[in-house]
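Methods: example folding runs. The two proteins below were folded one after another, and each record is reproduced exactly as written to the output file, sequence line first and structure-token line second.
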Amino acid sequence: MPVEHTVGPLEGKMTCIWLMVGLTALMQGQSEANAGSCKDLGVDFHRFFVAEGEAMVLSCTLLDPLILKSFAGSEYNISWYKNETGEEYTSGESTISAQNELLWFLPASLTDNGHYVCVLRNSVNCIKQAIFVNVHEERRNHCIHDSLVYLQQLKTLPNGNIICSDVKTFIERSEAHTIHWYKECKAIQNDDKFISYGNKLLVQRVSLEDIGIYTCEITFRLNGTEYKATRTIDLNVIGSYFSVYCEVFIGDLPASPLSNIYWVVNETEFIDPSRFTAGNMSEKPVSGGKLQQVQLIITEVKEIDFYTNFSCHVISGKGHSVGYFRLKPSRPSFLVHVGVFFSIILVFTIISAVIYKFFKIDIILWYRKSCHLIRKKQESDGKTYDAYVVYSKNNPWAPSNKAAQFALQILPHVLEKKCGYKLFIFGRDELPGEAVTDVVLKNIQKSRRLIFIYASKLYDEEDPLVLFELHTGLYDALICNKVKVILIELEVIRDYSGFPESVKYFKEKQGAVHWKGSFTGKYMSPSTRFWKQVRYLMPMIEEKQSDKNNFSLSV
């Protein structure tokens, strides 16, 4: 029996809503899929800084011929979105609007900080790149933006141009525009020094006095609304400009008897016209007559110009006259000398620090060896031994006891026989019949260093002597500060949980010397890195010590 189902108004609306939600999710999924397949070129190195309330325009950085090669022969579209929010921009009436390759901020606000992504896409390829924008708070009644300064420089030439950068788009796309210039926030008027044209400011007779902070302010109208943008330029003037006049007094003669005035450098005509310019002859009235003059302009003074003869020649019906001058280098100021001195000191200090860091041990060992004769002989510290050696003494001649082999054979062979140190090694140097505790206490106090040699197993539980030596020596080092500790690791140890806290403290504070060789002859040279580190940690030898107890190694 057929069942009739009547769809009510509410149910029809819900069906429509679910259909719209499904379509939206499908579109978002498709958009995310497309975005995920887009090649990301990261963030462009050119970052944009703008003051709050000023206009700004971004140009898509992907319209490069090399990038567009992959889009050749097919149409592509450009879209913009903000990376932080995902908001996509269109050509609407919002303060941020996209017009093909341009993204306009009319004007920028503090909330506009972030990365703006330009996406170049066709049916096959997709590329995107972000541009960073930083909007800083506007400083009221102040024309200089410290966070965005364009660095420009001019040479001391007759003329030079200061450029108002990154305003070309404003000029080309606007309905009308004007540009005003300021120096140190004071308005610049067109005169015989400055002339404003296009996006440039012509500076005539460039000199060191023109150094300073310049600001260009462009006001433009777009879609009937006026906007403004400013650029701050830090101008530096380089080179040395020089000019001089050759003046000839002709009195009050009704007609000049002069036929010619000209300049000569080193008795020859100007050999470098790009640097030397002679002006036209001019005449001006003075008291008692007239002066005729010709200006010599040196646009860039070089070292070869010093002590050169610059001659002014005057030829007339009455004869030939010559006047000349020479340029001398100005003396460097006291501040220049101070700056050079401290620069040399700084460079020397940095180089010395680097050398010392990498060659510290070699330098100290060389000093100990080379300066032995010039050092004053110090009073005796009452110590008998250079180091007391601690090692595991259970089965000292067993092949598995690496610490004992190293302490009884390798260490004395190098430090005593080859380097002249004197060591106390329990099991070799104590006298028969002495109490163990007395031997340990007495000889640790007579030693300048405590050398602790260990492998992966710190000490044997059946060898309490090692534990007693450690506690005695490390107590003396930590509390009394009379002996310094040298840790020698014979194996790579990753777990120190079984070590006493005092050993872990010294390991963390000063580290350990790691033995990486084998018990063979080539590893027993005092000049190897391991033995240099040990010798560096050992005390300085005042004079060659002889030790009758040196152990002869037989290999």
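Second run, written to the same file directly after the first:
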Amino acid sequence: MNSEEVIPLWRKMFEVTDIMRNMNISITDEMLFSLTFNQLRMIKNVHVLNRDYPEGVTLKVLAESLAITPAAASEMVDALVRKDVLRRDHNPQDRRAVAISLADSCRKRFAEGEKNFENLTNEFLATLPAADRDSFISTVEKFRVFMQPYKK
């Protein structure tokens, strides 16, 4: 494919992502405006890491995911705990370590946003014939797998 075909394609993908993200801003708008970009990155990483570490992610793992020092991560976590966005608990496997997770209010906002995405995706998929739906899902998965080596 040439640039004239590829550029409109990725622009459309970004447009769809932006539309979906903007749909959920009303859920989190008051929280978003009081946080820095790096704090938002940390919150997103905690949310994603909590899928693999439901009891809470360690400071070391969180710092590595953000490519920052544990000391810098600890300061950011403390600030977000004070804002009632993150929780810092004792790690159940190692009482000397901490387990970082989303605060209940933040977890609820993520759940509401994900429910909105689920409903919207189901609504779209219902408009497609079965063969197109299967092809779309398969293609998105192939693209996701292709992109994994570029993930940081």
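Comment on the second run: The longest strand covers residues 86-90.
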